[in-house]
Amino acid sequence: MAGRFDPLTRTAVRGGRTGVPAPTEAGAPAAGARAREWAPGRGVDLGLTLGPLRRGPGDPTFRTTPDGSVWKTSRTPQGPATLRVALSPRTGTAHAEAWGPGAEWMLDGLPALLGDGDDPAAFVPRHRLVHASHRRRPGLRLTRTGLVLESLIPTVLEQKVTTDEAYRAWRRLVCQYGEPAPGPGNGLPQGLYVMPAARTWALIPSWDWHKAGVDAKRSAAIVRCARVANRLEEAAAMELPEAAARLEAVPGIGPWTSAETLQRSNGAADAVTTGDLHLPGIIGYALAGNRDADDAEMLELLAPYAGQRHRAARLVLLAGHVPPRRAPKMRKTDIGKL
User: Is the pTM for the entire model greater than 0.90?
Assistant: First the structure.
């Protein structure tokens, strides 16, 4: 598990780790909530498992609270919903509550969300660093949300810009065009929103994209995705090659975007991210001492993990063994001020 000797660095965040306070015993379900308990049968680390779903510390669709709960909103096929999930500190049982029209859908998907469909036993470490990272994080599970657009849109916003710029755009657009999250009144974390519906994304005017710092290329890709949202959502039930082909049929969606999306929506353990500015150098440096590795070398290094390459890459990121910085950070921009 993450602990005092496992600092929450930017690389660890890139690896999908989110700080979640130590859990307390769950009380009675809140009034008006639908509730469910589920025993994973093995340890689950909420911060590692659900961390990839958070888009920055101010994500309006994701919150953690001091009692060790994770709050997550989604726009499900049945409508908007808010999910609160926490683990019992004694038994590890997941206690979940949900509100909104999509509450039942969220509770039905709780096991998949917490990695029930994931098989960590299929992973065999082949490098000392990967083995050490794997051993330190027995609660890592690959989440599966079953929702494509929810992960696809923020991933498109992250194309070719800094994460801070992408997170700012996501916050602004969700808060402006989404809707307040359903929930237990005063018990709901402040500022929690449900992302806009597909039709709403398609109708956002060009000036609001600009104010959010999103250029025409990325906004056009999101609008195209929103127009075929139903077809894209079908990819959540497909095998990885077919799902990637479905997403990449939309202009503006390439291998980088499809992999980052399917890692979350499908829990795809082999969806390795290619075309990334930093990942090949991090993998190359960690596993072979080559900070100048390209995609081809990264894929060669990850070849022994075929079927589990995404998990291997996450474990490398979580290990935090990155090359020393030798160039300035990518300059932040805000086209909304132009």
Answer: yes
